[in-house]
Amino acid sequence: MSHLVWFRADLRLHDNPALHTACQQAVIDGSGVVACFLRPQDQWENHHWGENRARFTERCLLDLGHELAQLNISLICWDVGDFNQQIPALLSLSQQLSCQHIWANEEPELNERLRDQALINQAQKTGIQCHFYNDQTLLPMGQILKKDGTPYRVYGAFRKQALKELERFPVQTLPIPQSMSCITEASQQDKITVLQADAGSLNVVGVSAFQPKAYLDDPIQQRWPATEAQAFRLLDSFCQERICQYDPQRDFPGNAEGTSLLSPLMATGKLSVKSCWLSAQQVQLSQPQGAQSAGRWLDELLWREFYRHLLVLYPELSCCQPFKPERAQIPWRNAPDDLAKWQQGTTGFPLVDAAMRQLKETGWMHNRLRMLTAVFLSKYLLIDWREGERWFMQHLVDGDLASNNGGWQWAASTGTDSVPYFRLLSPYRQAERFDAQGAFIARFVPELASLPAKQRIQPKGYVKGYPVPMLDLREGKDRMMAAFKSASFSQT
Ligand SMILES: Cc1cc2nc3c(=O)[nH]c(=O)nc-3n(C[C@H](O)[C@H](O)[C@H](O)COP(=O)(O)OP(=O)(O)OC[C@H]3O[C@@H](n4cnc5c(N)ncnc54)[C@H](O)[C@@H]3O)c2cc1C
Fold first, then answer.
1. How many domains does the chain have?
2. Domain shared by 352 and 292, yes or no
């Protein structure tokens, strides 16, 4: 008998409750632990994951395989297609390896939760017990509720309550489990070797099948460290050297060090949110001059927390529905040419174009620019926010349904805490405030680099090789106001 740990969005050894508890149990009952990852390529496509996100996940997985090997735990990777195929694959694997327990960490998305419930039901019939843990959030997902038992619908009130709960239940992390060296059964290893050699009806592949060499030439992957050791080094250096300047620096996209750049590692679960929270909290408590900035960063972690809780409490968010149902009536424009200009960074608005090109070149976009480009698409162009949400998922290394959906619905005024629909972010004003010298624009829009700063932000007249603005901002705003008013809802 042994224990099967199913890795999904938790590709790490540190602070991994499912892995930790499985290993503890294996020590108690004198058995072994086997790990698996069921790569659902088709599901990733259904969820609009692009190459950047998929490759980054696979690189994280490769590192996980090496890390687990240090604990004498084998990681088996199966290519399974979609979520429906994961369950039979998992049950078959459990049976072949004589595992009576499956251990995993919960995921907040609806399809994932339905799949896990189906697994629990089917596993019961075969005598296999499933154990699920929360590793995605600081507090149990979906359980921070108002006194009347209803969910918090705005961030401010949620944050207040979450901070109270975190005082009552301070965040703690789990260590890396002890090595399984003494107890891994030789017979188990033999079975795994046979499984890995057998392509069978289920495509069983070793973790090395992910061909990291093919990624070495990928300039986007080269930017993003994917090992657990690197993740901790990044977190430590951010908290020791930069977090105290986070508040004043976080809004300037030209400052590559202004934010932590940890989002891809958090999205794949290479780094747990609790590890991040504790590191920043230590700065907050020990360095009075940096406390406010560190607190600001903790607030960002709470935004992430909020969106995850909402995803669990409002399943419709996983089904492309607006958080505010009345806003389903907005008559979005079907304008493929305009959408293409936004996607390709050829709108003629320099900061918007620089941002969209940053996304394509690096697989990441600065938060202020995510807000700006999302408002530009959904308001000035009046194109459905779901088009933008999908494009982001297809290109982001850190693509994550909860945060992406939350951010897009905020910008489109269909979501929680969303900006009032009539309050727009002007691409020129944003550039004046956050890229005053036009340095960020020059970096990503080289056509404008030789112009003086003011002209980079808002070119006067025709610039060779650069498009003229694709719309008149005033007209865009009027069109949006009319469309939002025509869909009857209260003007908040
Ligand atoms: C339209 C839109 C789409 C977005 N899509 C995603 C996405 O797919 N994946 C993603 O991780 N974030 C998304 N965000 C949130 C935010 O832009 C990124 O988390 C942030 O830019 C990542 O950079 P960082 O790690 O340097 O952030 P930091 O500023 O260092 O923040 C630390 C961490 O806090 C979390 N965080 C920060 N800001 C937010 C936020 N507004 N909402 C939720 N969590 C936040 C992230 O996990 C981030 O890594 C989106 C925001 C908007 C407006």
1. 3
2. no
